[in-house]
Fold this sequence. Notes:
globular; mainly alpha
Amino acid sequence: xxxxQKLLKGFLYTLGSGYLARLASVALTVLIKRELxxxxxxxxxxxxxxxxxxxxxxxxxxxxxxxxxxxxKSRAFVQTHFTLNLIICGLTLLFGLGVMGALYYLWPQTFTxxxxxxxxxxxxxxxxxxxxxTAEGLLRMDLEFGRLSLFHGxxxxxxxxxxxxxxxxxxxxxxxxxxxxxxxxxFSAVYVFFFAGAVGLSRPQGFSRLHLDPVWTxxxxxxxxxxxxxxxxxxxxLWYDKLVxxxxxxxxxxxxxxxxxxxxxxxxxxxxxxxxxYTNTVYARYQHDRPRLSEVFSRMISLEVWIAWxxxxxxxxxxREVMVLMPAWGVSAAVIVWLAGYAFLRPLMDDCxxxxxxxxxxxxxxxxxxxxxxxxxxxxxxxxxxxxxxxxAFSMGLVAALGLFSLLWGVRRYVSVSxxxxxxxxxxxxxxxxxxxxxxxxxxxxxxxxxxxxxSALMVGIYAGVVGLLERRxxxxxxxxxxRLLAERRA
Length: 491
């Protein structure tokens, strides 16, 4: 099978299993949150997740991306890669556990025993998960996206089912450790043991062959150091707002803010998170072919805009109707509206960073991330003091706007993209659809489910009609290319 055919097969497998996993994730998370509610236990558990994520960020030293970047010489350094990953993850685990213990000792009223215990358990689980990082990288390098997608999809569903059953049994925060909720299910015990076990058996990396080659150790670290800096800054940007809400606004408000944040993340999770590993691998493969890389990147960005933007619009303008599914979390509806900017812009940012990491623009990505982190460090707490949770939500949209514009400028040195062509039709369709969605309020039936379906159908129909009409040539070319590759595969 040719490389384009393998890429198409992997893309279809990734989308298919990814969508099924995401749909199951959303449905099961709604049930889990209906069962638990924004209680103190949930708030403390989420503080634990926040602590774990911030303290685990140093372990991301770009080793996965280094493996893909140097894939043509992977045989020479695969054992060094495994050994180096083991050392970095082990040191990060010890560092994180030490900081958690210090926080609990100094501020036990804020960093409660529940929060610290959740953070500690998740840290140990994530260490076990990252022992298979080299094996996962080798599977990506061989374009085994179908297998990885199957492992991820099954692991997600099993984890969330475990969390739901544990919540029904009254296990409170332990249900979140067992199976997680939303996108956090990938940190849970069920997911880690299932996914890591499946990946490890697919590409075994034995501890008996630990080895550090000095030359390749230096090359891998030199490549990954800027990804490491950028990753820590990105983690800070994505999680700093939750910590600010907890410390400056309140405990319950943090849980309600997280619920709104989880919902506006769906446009990103439903596409960008599903195909990120795929696109990063493809960009690395075509990093020395600028025309081909530009074509693939343009198509992926267009796909994300076509799908993620109307979904974000549906969530934002139907915030009140969506919250009917989770009555105890109803206050989150107002926060969702103020997170609108973040909902629309975040999907595109991830793919731009993926491109920079794949082609070796790691230092540039770290600088752009540093700019966002600097603005967020000042803006988010200021808006929290001035305007509470809504201020934090709005500030995240402003930070995302700054990040996206800087990234669009940054990727120019690696790809040639016509941004007006990509954004023109979707922006027009989005504006008309939003106008129709707001106008629907005057004829709403005051029945949440009916209003959700009718308003969503109206907005999606208008958006799809505009984009389909103005982008019919590009859509036809993409469909024809897929058909051609499928026909070659059958032949």
